[in-house]
Design brief:
alpha+beta; five-stranded mixed β-sheet; 2 helices
């Protein structure tokens, strides 16, 4: 009889099983490698944003940029920090994280969105036009870059996505200032069933961690390390910062396991949260 060159059914099933096992082993490794690459890109982008701030400060007597200039230009009522440092960046894409899937907006620099936010207690300066309708005394002077006692521990930027709007043309509208700063270090991916979930701010998409930029311009990754009173890992404890969030008085959800990055827009307001060494 003529011998036929072919796989038996058992041999074919064994090969398929081996391929399935290898895929189960390798696919998670590939996913982790891809996430690590994205994290490296975002660390680089956030460091470059910090460098842009430093270059800005060298042109403005070492003063930290204003967090926002509100209501002085009818065509652009919300001149937030990102617009102020853009001439030193010349690339708005560096403000967007690849893990931020919310809608992008129309800007002079193409379709983009802001995934990075400032620490309010470092970018303290703000100016609001008294005729804009937000109040007549909303003004805070910026601090000098040399004011921070420990720049290597002082947070400048963190990952906090802009709110999602259906209107793609908010770049030159007041809505652009929404979400431009961080008030607390609570993560934004708490389960919806958690009462603290609406108060979450920090994007924790890089392996249950996030990325911070510091006042000396270095950027680094940090795992979630803040635990609430009920044992839930819900935020970040930054070395040198006081635990807790002091920006909202008598709010039961501003609890332990996080730190505050808030600063008032008006002298005497709540929200005074110091920086390391202050």
């Amino acid at each position: 009889m003529k011998k036929r060159n072919a796989f038996t059914l058992i041999e074919l099933l064994v090969v398929i099983a081996i391929i399935a096992i290898l895929a189960a082993i390798l696919f998670p490794v590939f996913a982790q490698a891809k996430l690590a690459a994205k994290k490296t890109v975002m660390i680089s982008n956030m460091k470059q944003n910090g460098t842009a701030v430093m270059i800005y400060m060298s042109d403005y007597d070492d003063m930290v940029p204003l967090k926002a200039i509100i209501g002085y230009d009818a065509a652009d009522p919300a001149k937030t920090w990102d617009k102020n440092i853009q001439p030193y960046m010349k690339n708005y894409a560096m403000l967007n994280s690849g893990e931020d899937s919310r809608p992008k907006y129309d800007t002079p620099y193409g379709k983009t969105r802001r995934s990075i936010a400032i620490a309010h207690n470092y970018f303290r300066g703000v100016a609001v036009n008294p005729t804009f309708g937000w109040g007549t005394t909303l003004f805070q002077a910026p601090i000098s870059g040399t004011y921070a006692p420990d720049p290597a521990a002082t947070v400048m930027f963190g990952l906090k996505p802009q709110p999602a709007y259906t209107d793609p043309t908010i770049f030159n509208k007041i809505e652009w200032q929404d979400g431009h700063g961080m008030y607390t270090t609570r993560r934004n991916n708490l389960p919806a069933s958690d009462a603290r979930a609406p108060y979450g701010e920090i994007m924790s998409a890089y392996g249950e961690g996030t990325i911070w930029t510091y006042a000396d311009t270095h950027a680094k990754f940090m795992k979630v390390n803040g635990t609430a009173g009920d044992g839930t890992p819900h935020g970040y404890l930054l070395p040198g910062y006081k635990e807790g969030a002091f920006g909202a008085v008598n709010d039961t959800f501003w609890d332990q396991g996080i730190v505050c990055l808030d600063w008032p827009w008006n002298a005497g307001d709540v929200g005074v949260c110091t920086i390391p060494g202050e």
